[in-house]
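note to self: the first set is below, dont mix up w the second
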Amino acid sequence: MSQKKNKPAGTDAAPDRKSERIAKILARAGVASRRGVERMIEEGRIAVDGKVLDTPATLVTTTSGITVDGQPVDEAEPTRVWLYHKPVGLIVSHGDPQGRETVFDVLPKDMPRVISVGRLDINSEGLLLLTNHGGLAQYLEKPSTGWKRHYRVRGHGRPDSKRMEQIRKGATVDGIRYGAVDLEEEESAGRSNRWYALVLREGKNREVRRLMEFAGVQVNRLLRTSFGPFQLGKLPAGAVREVPRAMLRQQLGKKAAEFGLT
């Protein structure tokens, strides 16, 4: 007699589906990136059929029976991406220990659960990409995609020309190595303020501010104007606009099918 095998969670609801790691399923449902889901499991925030998980190796086929912070997770919707003009004063996080208002608190109520592609700090503004597919968010954040991020920065102080040249070639600041950055001075904004244009190929934490401070410039305004092919344009502060699926397919090329954009 053959032994009865334990089935992965969620198999009763969809017997023909392939079992996958729970982080992948929840990323596809827009809960968080895979790494984010793994952190949530470590924090004891995810349960399957009422049992709190202690390992990300759990296999599931659907979101049926899965809860995050006690709330059930809906099945994944078709992959979507939005442009959002983040204003100053909002945190890019699903929860802030200090109780500050987040980007996700102010999004339109009819939007599904989304996560951000990278972040902008509380004092930064401009283009933020949002998506309901965690795997896509993780992919777009990688420098290997080749997508550049364009910023305009206003700052106080006269920059050190030698350090500006270091930044253009790639600089090490406080033990952190940053890649080459396109950096140009645009114009004076008064006696003490100047505007700069920067183009980054990666997005390390507070990279723009740290590099400009290294050059002797104290940043007092930071605006991201584009992320890869997506432009902020004239999108008003606080506004959201969905990216057409045809444009997503075009920009992702062969990768589009991997994220359900066929």
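second set (the one i keep forgetting abt)
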Amino acid sequence: MTIPPQVSLPIIPVGPLSIDGVRPLFILGPCVMESEAFVWEMARSIQKITNELGLKFVFKASYDKANRTSGGAYRGPGCEEGCALLQAVGQELGVPVTTDVHSPEEARIAGKYIDVLQIPAFLCRQTDLVVAAAETGRVVNVKKGQFLAPWDVGNIAGKIKATGNEKFFFTERGTSFGYNALVADMRSFYWIREQGFRVIFDATHSVQRPGGLGASTGGDGHLAPVLARAAVAAGCDGVFMETHIDPSKALSDGPNQVPLSDLGKVLHTLRSIHELVTA
């Protein structure tokens, strides 16, 4: 990976894995917990795919989609129940787990169960939430808001470091570009790493069309692997990618998710690109 000159990047432990620049970190899973059986099926299926490729991953699923376009959209099972389920999945499969939190109270609950607490992009400047997540001592993944420049993440890092927690990284997930559109700027990885922070790329949310379907978010899921390839070549530390057995039937963000049947091929390509640029 290309590291800006004179910059030393930290190694971030993520359960038995790490963000170290040697191998990319993959965060994989469905958008939302559609049912307990669905979560187990997705986790086991993803692990089978990654095992065949010799890769490790962090399993992701949301217990609550708190920022749905429509107030009547499906949200999930809730914090305590969802986090307990994720912990059970992680313990049985031996993989780290992550989910997004939306309030200081949720952060404290999730901190009892979850390896990586994710701060949603729209909430990345909410000081009380960021601090509460950091104070759990867990790894914190802050999604860079669609409204922030890459160099703005330094202020968020300062809030986390003030708690004594040095285990955090950022996720680039696109920047607002006019109405109902996002654009992913590959320069962002360099600029964030230049500040001394690890950064991964959210391939599926970067192809969203927020509110693009009127009462729900649209997207260009077929472009997620395209942007992921570019991001790995540009020097990101890993890739966040949502996947679903049948995206057309997903209860949240279906238009953006990568079909599970395509996941192995996509991951194989990303690993090959990473090996090429780090050779």
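remember for set 2: The radius of gyration is 17 Å.
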